[in-house]
Structures
1.
Amino acid sequence: MNPTIYDIAREARVSIATVSRVFNNHTCVTRKTREKVLDVANQLGYHPRALAQSLARKKTRIITVIVPVISNYFFMEVLAGMQDKIAEYDYDLQIFNVKLADNILNQADYIMKRGWGEGYVVISVHLADSEWQTLKKYNVPVVLIDEYYPGFDTISVDSIEGAYTATRYLLQTGYRNIGMICAKADSKPVMDRVLGYRRALEDFGIKVIAEQIVTGDDMERDGFTENNGYQAMTKLLACEPCVDACFCASDIQALGAIKAMRDANKNIPIIGFDDLEFSEYVGLSTMRQPMYDMGSLAIEKMVRRIENRESEVKHTVFSPDLVVRTLAPDYDLLAVRKEESGTFNSR
Amino acid sequence: MNPTIYDIAREARVSIATVSRVFNNHTCVTRKTREKVLDVANQLGYHPRALAQSLARKKTRIITVIVPVISNYFFMEVLAGMQDKIAEYDYDLQIFNVKLADNILNQADYIMKRGWGEGYVVISVHLADSEWQTLKKYNVPVVLIDEYYPGFDTISVDSIEGAYTATRYLLQTGYRNIGMICAKADSKPVMDRVLGYRRALEDFGIKVIAEQIVTGDDMERDGFTENNGYQAMTKLLACEPCVDACFCASDIQALGAIKAMRDANKNIPIIGFDDLEFSEYVGLSTMRQPMYDMGSLAIEKMVRRIENRESEVKHTVFSPDLVVRTLAPDYDLLAVRKEESGTFNSR
DNA sequence: CTGAAAGCGCTTACAG
DNA sequence: CTGAAAGCGCTTACAG
């Protein structure tokens, strides 16, 4: 077994308290004593066990991330942002997956009660207000990403604004008959995207045609699938009068929509939402969610909250960036990328 | 603060030992006592703290994953496999990132000494034999993914066979002048891929032309970049005699190679290696590494080793699967996917 | 500057 | 079946 603080203390002829002090960089240790301890520790290959430290300090220095098992590019980018940022602090990351099919509240409850984390970053988990309320009672630091609840720090993206920007861009480019592909319409992000789309049309004095807001029939994953996009675009192309451009609630659907266009031998401009990895390769224009920054910011917020439990709850809403790649012509791989700068505001 | 075992014991008028027994499902507790304890625990919202259990049991029930920060689809897929599999066992996953730029051995050393994990799964980290040897001395369970070292359980993919399969497929399809794009040639996977390519050509009685094995000049990330592939294909297209097909050491380079072909207005069949997410969208044929299965298997191996430290070290080598999407014609999004079944053998 | 001792929240032989 | 007690490997007032 690995040596413990007792082994070092014995060999170095000091007390365990002194050994502990050396490893905690207490200044009040003679240089000579410190060196002796470090010497012995090195020889024996000693390093304090984080576990024991955590129990004694009542601090684990762990930030726990709770994500749905559906691993996708969004989570990966968010995690990358978290991982890079956490390296600046003295915390470690622990990841727990929750199964969307099972009761999420129970799973979150279980994870939190076990108490590994000093705080919990919850990504893309959507609960009812009463359920968030339940978690709130644990009185433990929580940061929500891609969700909003007044009682916790949250980080999300302004879907209304994003949809508005995308639609306005199409309008400014000259299109006047713009359809929309949406997903299951009962979640806030989806409703907001429809709202932004409508507002843009209205601001340009164009009447919204309900039949031109479509979704596919396949409602797996709330409609956020290629298949759904394919079906939706097929519907949209059958509309009268014909749409001449399209705003799509997600990139994954936009991809299906593009395939539908190819199969139908049509080609109208489309703008998606997300900016997934393949979007760049495919040359899809889209509203980019600053996933990396969202993850990075989540860690900052979390550390701040752990260190000051009473600080005021804050909600950050990012504005998605319009990334124009190729609007219509040829969805080939060679599309030159051109990005417009985006804005970011904290409320 | 949350209640502890003492609070429950006091309220339920039993000893803490009994409370502990109830939560550990010891059978030797009267039903009446058990219910009383559970009742009180429920009321007070008690759940054993994993941290304290870990210290007392000297088992953390955590499996730690060490991955380079460069987050890519390979890691994500592997992690997904691990996450799904670990749900079958009573272990949790903890993820640590190592910075490739810094000394990896030091980082791994630090992570292991802190002792969170009962075992460590190391993904895509490449060390010298002597360095692995150093880690070996800690005498802690380790499973390597995408690397081979005799002293640890390892999971890797047969690059020689993969390259051979890809090249043979091109040969069987009728191409006779096949070039190869490779990356930095000092890593084993890359050398193996070149070897497999050569062997296939030789088996078909075709002379290997050294000039037709190229790589780009941009050696960032050991050449595994789009840019490198672009440069390499540009070189390859300038070769005399002209190559009529190409095997490429990685999908990311193949993507760059495709762009180079477009820019040069050429189009020869190409087969990549990896099967990244975008490969499917782009219709790139490739040698698929069973990333998900590799992750899943890593957990199985790890749990087995944690529970039986002395079990024999085993190396699993997966055979990559040839995924034929579209060989040459039009790299459009509509390529129909056709997969050939692959094999899998354990050595 | 250093040590003895209590405590972090559990588990687990050992008795009874 | 149940309890008293020691122990897991540390930290941290409290004295000196």
Note: Chain A touches chain B through 46 residues (CB under 8 Å).
2.
Amino acid sequence: MPVTSTRELIIEKADTLFYEGGYEATSFAEIAAAVGISRGNFYHHFKTKDDILNAVIRRRVMSTRIMLDSWQADGAGPRDRILSFVHMLIANRSKIMAFGCPVGTLCTELAKLDHVAQTHAAEIFGLFRDWLAGQFRVLGAGDRAEQLAMHILSWSQGVAVMAVAFRDEAFIRTEVARIESWLSALPNLPHAAKESQCS
Amino acid sequence: MPVTSTRELIIEKADTLFYEGGYEATSFAEIAAAVGISRGNFYHHFKTKDDILNAVIRRRVMSTRIMLDSWQADGAGPRDRILSFVHMLIANRSKIMAFGCPVGTLCTELAKLDHVAQTHAAEIFGLFRDWLAGQFRVLGAGDRAEQLAMHILSWSQGVAVMAVAFRDEAFIRTEVARIESWLSALPNLPHAAKESQCS
DNA sequence: GTCTATAGCCGGATAGAC
DNA sequence: GTCTATCCGGCTATAGAC
């Protein structure tokens, strides 16, 4: 028995292919070729294509949780932790310029396909939102914590879309710097964030 | 001869279907059914699916130009004109929550498909960027006009992505209000924008 | 310009041997 | 658990009648 099971390998390869080529456009044949198994063998592991999609989303949810936990553990404070999130745009810039954000692009594709898994995929955004809201709460944002979380999440999504449209790395860096200075300008006293200049 | 030619009708219906269902997922049969012609008749007007895509993009470029011209003519000033752009998010909120932004979602889909028309589709963003930069230039933004244009374009794209992911109309309104106050906070003296609080 | 008919391919999915 | 062989349907695209 291999260290990584065939099932896990299928999910892993499908994850990459769904990201880089889109869910609908990725065929069983492509996934099978990437894994190195026959198409027929496929159905021993997954009954339908939707099953693979759900497994891929579950995998992404799990890896997101792990990533957020590590940011939580490693970050010196809430601002530093939020920066971990923001700096994903820099770290993954090449892939983002080529394929966009994995979460955003999947959600929009599933929306157009009117796919049942759309809600499931949006859960990943939910994880980021809740975690970010937690950081803003520590910064004293109070009731506005969730709104600020959605704002920064939305901001990063906009950057990803424009980055893929114009293939512009400089734009990513400019916007990340903008987010950083917006974040430093946020007061950290309780309730003081309610009249931030930028809100 | 009809007022609207069959060719124009095909482009119009394809435009809607590509937006609502995605380019790849939309078949000739669906477009033909929407127009009310047979599949075979289709190829009298368009040789390939890519031809339709290009025609759809050309149509969108033209209608964008017309829209920008009307905003230019009707707006009382640059801030007012920029608000015309921003308020598209409110006016089209239902469609945006269901299918995202027509331009952003097409660009990301074509990027994943590695489609040659990707650059063509990004031209639409280019029109908005240049027009918005013109408005910011009137506001005295100088060299930063284009950067501010990209910022507000990116901002609206982020809102569209999150709106489709969470189907949240309140979020759209909150962010639009945020953009409005950000815009009013921008100084309109030449060079004064370089140290705006939010930049 | 519009139709029907059909070619040819590739998609997801199944059956059954090994 | 993996394979080959195959079904069925929908797809793009073509041919040719009207």
Note: Chain A has one domain: 6-191.
